[in-house]
Structure formats: C-alpha cells, structure tokens
Write a structure and sequence with these properties.
CATH architecture of the largest domain: 2-Layer Sandwich
Subcellular location: Cytoplasm
GO molecular function: damaged DNA binding; DNA-directed DNA polymerase activity; magnesium ion binding
Keywords: Cytoplasm, DNA damage, DNA repair, DNA replication, DNA-binding, DNA-directed DNA polymerase, Magnesium, Metal-binding, Mutator protein, Nucleotidyltransferase, Transferase
Distance between the termini: 21 Å
Shape: globular
Catalytic activity: DNA(n) + a 2'-deoxyribonucleoside 5'-triphosphate = DNA(n+1) + diphosphate
CATH superfamily of the largest domain: DNA polymerase, Y-family, little finger domain
Strand order of the largest sheet: 8-11-9-10
Cofactor: Mg(2+)
Helix content: 25-40%
Number of helices: 13
Number of strands: 11
Length: about 350
Amino acid sequence: MDAFYASVEQRDDPELKGKPVAVGGSKERGVVAAASYEARKFGVRSAMPSTLAYHKCPNIIFVKPRFERYKEVSNQIHEVFQQYTDLIEPLSLDEAYLDVTQNKKGMQSATMIAKAIRNDIKEKTGLTASAGISTNKFIAKIASDYNKPDGITLVGPEKTTVFLEQLPIEKFFGVGKVTAEKMKALGIKTGLELKAWSKEALTAHFGKSGSFYYEIVRGNDERPVNPNRIRKSLGAENTFDYDLIELVDMKLALEPIARTVMNRLKKAEKFGKTLTLKVKFKDFRQITRSQSVTKEIDSFDRLIEISFGLLEQIDWDQFPSGVRLLGITCSNFGDKEIGVVKKGHQLTLNF
C-alpha cells in the first residue's frame, strides 16, 4: 500500500487530502510512524523524530495513529487477495507476498492479476497500491517499491540480471543504512559491484549476511510464499508525552505496556521464554536488555517481575537523564514453522 497509515487518515478526513500529514508524534516530541507523499517531498520519513519533521515541514499536520482502523482496512485488502489466491504471506498491515502461479481466477498472466488486484483494492477502499512482479520474493519486494506511488513494476526472468546489477546498493531489500554505508566504503555502490565479490569475502566482512548478499544479487531466492508463517515475537511499546526521570515512574509506565503484551500473548496463545526490554532516551539513544528463563512467561505478574528486574539492572549513570520510550517484547516461543511448501516441481505462469 502507498503511505498506508497517512492515506487512510487522508481518506477518512477530506480536510487532510493534499496536505502534508504525519501519523504519530507532535511538534514537541514523538516519532513519525508514517508520512504522506506531500510530507515526503520535504524529506519527512517514517521513524524520524517529529521535531525534525516539523523543522523540515513547518506546515505538517500531526495526527494520532488509529491502529484498529488500519487493521480494519487491512482486513478489507486481504479479502481482495483471497479472491485470487490462498498463498498469502503478510509482512505487515499494508504489505504481503502473493503466489499467484495457480490462482483462483484462472488468469494466465501475472501482470494482469496484479492490475486486477490493484483495481479491486482501489474500488473497495479508495486507496492506491503498488505491485512488484517477479520470479521470487526478493525481486518482487524490490520491484514493489520501484515505481511508487500507484505503480506496477515487472521484472521478468530475462530482465533479472540487468535489473539487479544496475540497482543502487541501498535499494536492496535487507541492506540497511549502516550496511549500505559500510558497503560503499568498500567500493560497493551497485549490484554489479556487489556481484564481483566472492561469498567468502562477503562473509568475512558481513558475517552470515554475506552469504545472503551473494545469493540475492544473483537473483537466487528459493523461499516459498508461506501463508502459515509463525510470529517469532510479540510486544508493545509507548512513547511518552514527557521524559521519565525517576525509576518509580518508569515502573508505573511499564505496567500498561506489560498488560498489553500479556493480552496479545494470550490472544495468540503463545508464551515465550525470552523477554526484551527496550529503552529510548531523550537524545534518541536506544538500548535493549534481555533475559531468558526456563519456563514460559505466561502470567502478567511474571512478565512485570522480569521487566522490572531488567529495568533495575541498567546502569543509569551511563545514560542521559530522561526516558522517552519503553517497550517490552516476548520471544523464543519454541514453535516449529508449519505449512512451508516443500521444494518440488516449479510451476510456470506467464508474466
């Protein structure tokens, strides 16, 4: 979806249409969760401190996020997907992989299917979507971002090599900002330059990710679209209207976060053995502290006990006074992934 959260807000409130909108944060504090394309023209991006967003775009309009509303619209979009295929792997509320090789409509062209899905989404929700079409998940993901907003990009088998070789390294899905800068320092600015490196050399510089980079730049990605992908963690966090200074205030602020996490764990019927505490300070520095236990954390009391313990272990003298965000995540569920399609004969579909 294109600028999903912001687009939903603009659709629901006509007064926001055509104006720079940031979901989340305020002029004084907070973080931008999503920005409309009108705001992006000024350099406003998601995860940007809202004070910086306001500096870049003084006319920006901040709106509070409505995640229940976004989930409702996301469900409508998935209803469209399900009219075409059951092989849907959600990445987030606004993004998913679809395997349409054997589709419910009996359509013989992947491009025509993508166009039909985008048209159905527009008709049902009034929102625009961009699609990437290719031979595997990695290339399709890159292609989906290539012609935004309201675009469609096809990278067929015969175009894969040239497409990846010409691609700027920061456009590779899985190559973050820090890694991109490290690669550029090594003289790797494009896919072609990445391709010149051996798997051993990339592994020496980037660890296990080196093997991944070696394969993807050659267009190799055998991961199936997995409709039963298992969540590996559940959590919640909160950015506060004012900085928390005292430990007692932080503990009070952690309690509703912990209750939210426990409710989500119970709803998902998953209880992890690892708890991670996230702390972001007023200067945006961030730390995490984790603890693993032998028995699943399946009660609020146990959850808050471990969270408080991790909070108390922090050497506060090493960090600036003032906490702006706290978060709790539970992981290590111990589930085995199910429903993965086994390797076998590769079916074909015209692009």
